[in-house]
Design goal:
Layout (H helix, E strand, L loop, with lengths): L34 H12 L18 H25 L9 H9 L24 E4 L4 E3 L10 E3 L4 E4 L10 E2 L5 E2 L8 E6 L10 E5 L7 E11 L4 E8 L5 H16 L6 H14 L7 H17 L9 H19 L17 H8 L17 H4 L5 H10 L7 H6 L10 E10 L8 E6 L2 E5 L3 H7 L4 E4 L11 E5 L13 E2 L4 E17 L2 E10 L4 E2 L9 H8 L7 H5 L1 E9 L4 E2 L13 E2 L12 E7 L10 E14 L2 E2 L2 E2 L6 E6 L10
């Protein structure tokens, strides 16, 4: 029975309370009651029929000693049940709050926790320029606190060698130029050259002669663009081959002119066979694919080489040699190269999910510290390792300080480098602007005609060029390029022919820059240049060319004097100083034989050091500008030079190569 007036309060027992705990609670309810519950229950007990002996105690005033005793008892029970609930909570993993309770619970299943460790962090020191010091163990450093945080103090765990040059270890970004660097974005034959300085005086349309280190004949290129890099103090020049005509036309012209010159040699079996092979090249059509023309030309060259010339063929042997050389040069000048596929994609093809997955790729773990680094004795004591350099310094204390300079300045280049010459002037042959020759009169009217092959024979020499003006910068040993690409084979049995179509590259044997010349009806200043190879050929007496061959040539020629009018000569070669070209390949992996080459020699760097690799990532497709950073330990250090096919590159010096203990998770732009 209950009432709402409160007169029944204190006449019912409240304890023990009913307990019910749902699963998953962060704390258990385990108390039988609290102070008020126990006090009310004891007051109700005073009026209970089971306690008739206390019926006479009717007072309920808290100040009464009897009631105060009940209050003290309720307080005692309140404290006991509080701790009883806490003890019950400590018996379960989810509700336990004391470390000791967790340890005891874990021991029930045989688990023993490790002792606690202090927090650790990797700290990068930046020291002042020229500083060389050892940072002692125990050096303190404080963290920069965030909002509502306090700075945390860390201490270094071991001595640390510090060098100013280690503040930032730059990777190598440039390398010597062995050949022009291909530029597939501008076309399959486009290339780039880099020169030191910004005062090369190169302009669009200038000619560059590239002398390669492989012993092959030099190549001629045309300057397309010139970019000055004031920061790097270098000039970037985009180039294309000087001759842009298709291989089909070059090979056909070489075959036609060679057949005209070699027609008198048809009285020999070898000469007849060679002329027959050249006829196959004459039959090449302009629409034939260049790749097939190159293949057919190479087959003809191989067959010409296999022909038996004989020991006494004083006329046939030079002609055969010239034909083979001209065809090989044509193949080299064509330089057929397949178009390089690029990784460019349309914006609509960008796969954000794939890019995000690559960008979030986890980094591999490495050794915990230098003591845990796996070391190989053969690698550590390699002839070019950092340890070997240190041993030499200890064995020769007098040389210890000089060893870095000795290694850095060592002359290690064994492969000859590429050389590039600017051909500063473009000359014409003397007589290119000569008026037509007076050949007679019809009544009182003069009759003019062009100069004949006989006139050319009288005025020209096979190995001497007569230029149209004074070119004082031409010297013995310099390069000249005879450009006959504007000429065509001349019809006739004894007509002169160009010795090399479309280009003849030759060394100057002798130059006379102060010559006065009179020829082709004009007189003026000239420069005579004697070269090592003939530029003009005069056929000898013998069987005439076939009528079919003459018919082919007649359709293409305008007369013998076009050789003089249309031949140009590139002269005044000047050697340009090359700069190193940028390394475009990204930086990846970093372990083993894919170690990272630094931009300089670091003789004091040793394995076991931590480094942070940071930069712009290149491994995320379809985007750029994503930064990356990785902590890695150095596993091996060697001081070496870059090589190609086991040969040291020209202009190389010794650099430091760093191999990491675990490979990089990302690739980086250099």
């Amino acid at each position: 029975m209950s009432c709402g007036c409160g007169c029944c309060e204190g006449v019912r027992a409240h304890t023990p309370l009913e307990l019910a705990n749902s699963p998953g609670l962060r704390a258990l309810r385990y108390r039988l009651g609290e102070h008020g519950d126990f006090f009310d229950s004891m007051l109700a007990g005073l009026s209970s029929a089971s306690n008739s002996a206390l019926a006479a105690l009717r007072i309920r005033d808290p100040s009464d000693p009897a009631i105060a005793l009940l209050d003290a008892g309720a307080t005692l029970l309140d404290v006991l049940t509080f701790y009883q609930e806490r003890i019950a909570n400590e018996g379960y993993l989810r509700t336990a709050r004391e470390r000791r309770s967790l340890i005891e619970l874990a021991r029930l299943v045989g688990y023993r926790p490790r002792p606690g460790l202090s927090a650790s962090a990797f700290l990068a020191f930046t020291v002042e320029q020229t500083a060389r010091l050892t940072i002692p163990a125990g050096t303190k450093a404080q963290s920069v606190p965030g909002q509502d945080e306090l700075p945390q103090t860390f201490e270094t765990s071991a001595p640390l060698e510090a060098r100013a040059e280690w503040n930032q270890l730059n990777v190598r970004r440039t390398q010597p130029q062995l050949t022009p660097v291909r530029d597939p974005k501008r076309g399959p034959r486009a290339a780039v050259l880099y020169f030191k300085g910004v005062t090369t005086r190169l302009r669009k349309g200038d000619a560059l002669l590239v002398e390669l280190s492989n012993g092959k004949k030099p190549r001629i290129y045309r300057v397309m663009t010139v970019e000055l890099d004031q920061v790097a103090e270098r000039t970037r020049v985009e180039i294309l081959p000087w001759i842009t005509m298709r291989l089909n036309e070059i090979v056909r012209n070489v075959a036609l002119s060679s057949s005209l010159v070699g027609a008198p040699l048809a009285n020999t079996a070898t000469g007849t066979a060679a002329l027959g092979l050249l006829q196959k090249l004459i039959d090449i059509r302009s629409e034939d694919p260049e790749e097939k023309v190159a293949q057919r030309t190479q087959e003809i060259v191989d067959k010409l080489i296999s022909l038996d010339v004989g020991p006494n063929a004083t006329r046939l042997a030079p002609w055969m040699s010239a034909v083979i050389s001209a065809l090989e040069d044509a193949l080299a000048d064509a330089d057929l190269m397949p178009t390089v596929a690029t990784s460019e994609r349309d914006a609509g093809d960008f796969d954000f999910g794939a890019a995000a997955a690559i960008a979030a790729r986890a980094q591999p773990t490495g050794p915990r510290n230098a003591a845990a680094l796996s070391r190989n004795l053969g690698t550590a004591l390699h002839a070019r390792s950092a340890a070997t350099l240190g041993i030499v310094g200890r064995l020769q204390p007098a040389l210890r300080d000089a060893i870095p300079s000795i290694v850095r300045n060592a002359n290690v280049a064994r492969m000859p480098g590429m050389r590039v010459f600017a051909l500063r002037s473009r000359a014409s042959l003397f007589g290119h602007n000569a008026p037509r020759k007076l050949v007679g009169f019809e009544g009182n009217i003069p009759v003019f005609d062009d100069w004949t092959a006989g006139d050319i024979r009288k005025a020209e020499d096979e190995t001497k060029l007569h230029l149209d003006a004074k070119y004082e910068a031409i010297t013995s040993g310099s390069w000249v390029v005879v450009d006959t690409s504007g000429t065509r084979p001349i019809p006739g049995r004894l007509e002169p022919q160009v010795a090399r179509f479309p280009l003849l590259i030759a060394r100057v044997l002798k130059a006379n820059t102060n010559e006065s010349r009179s020829a082709y009806g004009i007189t003026g200043s000239s420069t005579s240049v004697t070269i090592a190879d003939p530029w003009l050929l005069f056929p000898e007496e013998g069987p005439p060319p076939t009528l079919a061959l003459l018919a082919l040539v007649n359709d293409r020629s305008e007369g013998p004097f076009e050789i003089i009018r249309r031949t140009s000569v590139l002269v005044e070669s000047e050697l340009l100083e090359l700069a190193e070209s940028p390394i475009e390949t990204p930086l990846c992996n970093g372990t083993g034989d894919k170690s990272i080459e630094l931009s300089d020699l670091q003789p004091d760097l040793v394995p076991g050091r931590w480094v942070i690799v940071t930069g712009e990532r290149t491994d995320v497709p379809g985007t750029s500008g994503i930064p990356g950073a990785e902590l890695r330990m150095i596993a091996d250090v060697r001081h070496d030079v870059a090589r190609m096919d086991d040969k040291t590159l020209a202009g190389e010096v010794i650099h430091t190569f760093v191999a990491l203990a675990s490979e990089l998770a990302y690739c980086y732009k250099r």
